[in-house]
Amino acid sequence: MLAYALFETAIGRCGLAWGEDGVIGVQLPEKTITATRTRLLRHCPTADEIDPPRHIARAIADIQALLRGEKKTLRAIPLDMSGVAPFYARVYDTARAIPPGATRTYSEIARAVGRADGARAVGQALSRNPFAIIVPCHRVIGANDRLTGFSANGGIATKLRILQIEGWRAQEPELFEALT
Fold first, then answer.
1. Measured in Å, how far apart are the chain's first and last C-alpha atoms?
2. 36 in Cβ contact with 13 (< 8 Å)
3. 114 exposed, middle or buried (CB, 10 Å; 0-12, 13-18, 19+)?
4. Along the chain (180 residues), what's the average pLDDT of each consecutive run of 10 residues?
5. Catalytic residue numbers, as ranges
6. What predicted TM-score, i.e. pTM, was given to this entire model?
7. Region 86-179: CATH code
8. What is the SS3 assignment for 98?
9. pLDDT value at position 175?
10. Number of helices and strands (H, E) in the chain?
11. Right CATH number for 3-66 from 3.40.50.720, 3.30.160.70, 1.10.3080.10, 3.40.605.10?
């Protein structure tokens, strides 16, 4: 059975979908609740909206805590990556190791997964990340603290907001003043 729930966070209403083998999708807030639900259901069009079971409620509570600024890694949340390409799964596993408040570059992730010249491929994988926030694609940045490549509603401004909630400090903060 596939199911989903919508829940409030410090950045707006998010969604989480799950099946028997773990989380299959997370959706960051869109402009409307209907849009959030619609984007989440791309991962699981037959899912039913239900009250989450205990382990999913715990995952939701951890996501909410992280988005309030608590240092939660979310690494214990089981993900169902059965529909994810092997390279993407390696990228997602590597990104999950980045702690809150820290960042890595696309090139660093590429080297970590054994494709030293694969920064663009990493960017492609992260742009298709169905597990946003649990797989913290927002913590992957360009060289020299350059914020690039965030497909969530609000784009780079949302990426910066989440990073700031987590306690990240840019090396050159004046570059980001216009976004806040």
1. 41
2. yes
3. exposed
4. 96 96 95 95 92 97 96 94 96 96 94 94 94 94 79 77 86 46
5. 137
6. 0.89
7. 1.10.10.10
8. coil
9. 47
10. 6, 6
11. 3.30.160.70
